[in-house]
Structures are given as structure tokens and as C-alpha cells.
Amino acid sequence: MTKWCTLILGGLLVCTGAFAQEKQITFSPFSHDLDNNDNFSPDGKWLCYDTRETVGGGIENSQSVNMVNIETGKEIILWKAPESIIGPKGSETGPAPGIGAVSFNHAKAEVVFIHGPMLEDVPARGPYDFPNRTGGRVEINKPGVRHWVDMRDIATDRDTTPGAHRGGTHRHEYSYNGNRIGFTYNDFLQKEYDRTVGYMEPHPDAPEGYSHYFAIMVPVVPIGTSKPGELEKAWGDSWVGRDGRMRAFIGRVRNADGETYDQSLFVADVPVGVDITTADAGSATRFPTPPKGITVRRLTTTWAGPIARGSLDGKHIAFYGKDANDKMQVFIIPSDGSSEAVQATSFPEGADLGVRWHPSGNSVVCLSNNRVAAVCVKQGSPLFGKHVFLTDQDGPARIKPVLSWDGKTLAYNKQVPTTIADGSIVKNYAGADYMQIFTLPIPDENGDGIADGIGQ
Fold first, then answer.
1. Tens digits of per-residue pLDDT, 425-438?
2. Contacts from 324-333 at CB under 8 Å and sequence distance 24+?
3. pLDDT tens-place string over residues 81-122
4. DSSP state of 94
5. pLDDT of residue 455
6. Contact 412, 372 (CB under 8 A)
7. For residues 329 and 351, is the Cβ–Cβ distance under 8 A?
8. Where are the chain's structural domains?
9. How far is residue 199's CA from residue 359's CA, in Å, rounded to a whole number?
10. pLDDT at position 92
11. How far is CA 143 from the centre of its chain?
């Protein structure tokens, strides 16, 4: 298709054509990775991101977490490690610390993110790894001041400190009301256990020097030891609703034959009144267990994965399943399990990773074959399952989409050529283009949460 691009005040590049305006908002010579998290600030004016793939691969080599104003392009470093070691994950001396996968708190002007070991702690803790990371927190009006969220305690001569963990927390996500943080967890002391899901909340009994009390949410058993119906792994998790009472996740569960496994969609129910201090933090020989009162429900018996996303009203969950042609598509299911999952997309090429809910609950956005699609999922609507593409297929891949809290703006990443003051093109450590951030308005003239053009 024909496309016209104009450089406007502030250095922002606006491209127009038959689709809505796609606007590049970052141009700095480093990568800006959204990671498909809660990247929009509550007021929709800022996007937070990390800088992985700039000087080295992965989160382990990300040097900072930043935010950018989507109107002016102004970038602010929220937290940067004073010192770092660059290198491949798994090496003895590095990398460290590794800072990334940042998300906003909708209820407070702050962000949370993964933080690996500081350099002075590497001799004792080792370098960045899945079971060697915690959460960091920064108030956006106090950049450069980091607070520790969760305590890591790997002592083997006593029980683990109550409210602490013995490994690594990852992909931290605030509940909408800010009262809880969900995450995936890998244990260091008992590596025979696979990844699982946990949560934490501010508590007066949190370990000294840390803001939150940690607990496992989903119980798992050691790899290869499960009985029928038992979970060996939990991941791909997301809050369902506003108040942190329900967390959807993908689980690896043993089938009734005692031999094979399924990968299905589950929900953990965490009532508001659950006392997080009733969790067992475990020991070197005892795996942590959840607080009393948490229950786990299975919603599907067919393949699901690799991530689930809950609607803001708490009524539905979007997840990936397989269609009749074994293509990955987006499915919708009631969070209470009152009916079966319904296939919402039917893209010939399948749906790619990155599904996100519109805050109205009436639609989702997702990717297919390098196009951004808005899909109606309003229950009972004749438009259910119909979609409109918001972009064409031109150019570099669009990945990691995120929606603003008012549902009016979409953002995503693209790797594009980046120039510096002398006009020369610069590349990252591997000789590839830097990841930049683009935004796109969601066309919705009547404000019903269903993009204009669906069904036309």
C-alpha cells in the first residue's frame, strides 16, 4: 500500500496511509523493549521499557529501565545499575545485575521490574539467572532511588525467612488496585521443582528492608513425580479482574493414565481475606507452600498456552489454543468455568503471541502475520469473532503490543534503522537494528470498545 511519512516537531515520525497513523516515538541509539507488560502509565502519557539487546542479549544484559513520553518523546532513566558485567547467561562471572521486564502500578506512580544480583553480591550469589533475581521498585517522581520488593534467602542451615523466597521472581505484575503483585517463580534450593506462580503484598511482617511479603500461589510437585491431576509447572500467568483475587495461568498436569501430560488453562482463586503469613516459606529440604484459603481450578482439558490474559472486569480469560488445523488461535472462556471456551480468531496463519484486552472487555488486540488486529469478543454480539486489521504487513515485525488503560492507544515494538547526529546508522551489539517503540490510535468513534471497521 502507499504510505507517506512526515517528521514533525520533537522528532516524531508519523506515517499515514489507508490505516490509522503509526507513530514512532523513540529514536535513541539503544533498544526499547516493552515485553508485552503493563507498560502504559495510569494516565496514558508514558511507556516504560527496558534496554535489553543493546549491549548484550536478554534481560540479563539490560542496563536500565526507562520511560518515554508518548507525545514529546522525552525519555527518563528510572533506574540504572551503577556497574554491570556483560556476557552470556550461565557464565561464572556474569552477566549481572540484569534489569528489565518493567511494569507500571496502576494505583500508584511507580514501576516494578526484575533485578538480578548487584556486582558486589555476585561472588556469594552468582550471576543473573532465573533462580537468582528479585523485584525492584522505583517511584517515577524519584528516578534513581530503588527499593527492594522481595527478599531472597538461600540459607540451608535453617528454615527460609518467613515472607522471603529462595530463588527468583519474574515478570512482576501489579493487580489493578495495586494491592498484590503476581509473578512466576524459580526455586534455587530445590531445582527438582519447575517454575510456578506466586504473589506478594505489602505487609507489616515483610522481611526488614523489603516492602512485600512473598508466597507461592500454585503448589507444584517435583518434575516427573506427579500423580494424575497434579501440577508440575505453572507459568504464563495474569490477573483476572481488578482486585487480585484471581490469577489465570498455564499448567502442566499429569493425565489420568499416569504417563502423559496435558498443558491446560487453570485459575488460582485468592480471596481478599487470605492471610499471606500462613504460607510456609520452606527450607533446604521443604518446598514452599501457599497460604491457607487459596484454591486452584482447571478450566480446559485441551492444549492451552503459552500465556493467559484476564479481562479487567474479571469475567473472561483470553488464551491461546489450537484450531482444527493445529494453528494457534485466541480463545475466550468465562473465568468461573460456567461454559466452554469459544474460538475468537480464525486467522489462516494463526495468531501470534501478544494478546491484550481492551479495558471495556468487548475486544482484544493481537497479532497475525505481522499485522495488528482488533477482535470483537463481546458476549452475545453478532460481531463476536470478527476482526479488523489496524496495520498492514509492511516492514519489520510488530511485536509485544500493549494497550493504554483507557483503550485509546496501542503501542508495540519494531526493529528499525536508527541514526545518530551525523546521519550514520548505528546497530546493537549483534549488528541488528535497535528495538524502537511505535504507537497507534485505536479507531473507536462511539467508544464502545469495539474498533471501527469490525464487521464491515
1. 999 999 999 999 99
2. 327/351, 328/352, 330/355, 330/364, 330/366, 330/375, 331/304, 332/377, 333/265, 333/299, 333/300
3. 999 999 988 787 789 999 999 999 999 999 999 999 999 999
4. -
5. 82
6. yes
7. yes
8. 26-351
9. 23
10. 77
11. 22
β-bridge mates for residue 254, sequence order:
261
Task: Tell whether pTM > 0.70.
Answer: yes
Q: What is the pLDDT of residue 94?
A: 84
Three-state SS sequence of the chain: CCCEEEEECCCEEEEECCCCCEEECCCCCCCCECCCCCCECCCCCEEEEECCCCCCCCHHHCCEEEEEECCCCCEEEEEECCCCECCCCCCCCCCECCEEEEEECCCCCEEEEEECCCHHHHHHHCCCECCEEEEEEEECCCCCCEEECCCECCCCCCCCCCCCECEEEEEEEECCCCCCEEEEEEECCCCCCCCEEEEEEECCCCCCCCCEEEEECCCCCCCCCCCCCCEEEEEEEEECCCCCCEEEEEEEEECCCCCCEEEEEEEEECCCCCCHHHCECCECCECCECCCCCEEEECCCCCCCCCEEECCCCCEEEEEEECCCCCEEEEEEECCCCCCCEECCCCCCCCEEEEEECCCCCEEEEEECCEEEEEECCCCCCCCCCEEECCCCCCCCCEEEEECCCCCEEEEEEECCEECCCCCEECCCCCCCCEEEEEEECCCCCCCCCCCCCCC
Residues of the chain whose pLDDT is less than 50? 1-17
- Rounded Cα gap, residues 13 and 11, in angstroms: 6
For residue 93, which amino acid is it? T
- Residue 289 cell numbers, joined: 507452600
Distance CA 198, CA 170 (A): 10
- Calpha distance 199→74 (Å, rounded): 33
Of the candidate CATH numbers 1.10.3660.10, 3.30.1360.120, 2.120.10.30, 1.10.3720.10, the domain formed by 26-351 belongs to 2.120.10.30
- Tracing cell 480468531 back to the chain, one arrives at 345
- Residue 127 CA to residue 133 CA, distance in Å, equals 9
φ, ψ at 61 (rounded to 5°): -110, 10
Q: Write the single-letter amino acid at 235.
A: W
Instruction: Walk across the sheet containing 146-148 and list its strands.
Output: 99-104, 110-115, 134-139, 146-148
Strand order in the sheet with 46-50: 46-50, 64-69, 75-80
Cell of 415: 526493529
Neighbours of 445 (CB within 10 A): 7
Task: Report the candidate in 155, 247, 259 with the shortest Cα–Cα distance to residue 207.
Answer: 155
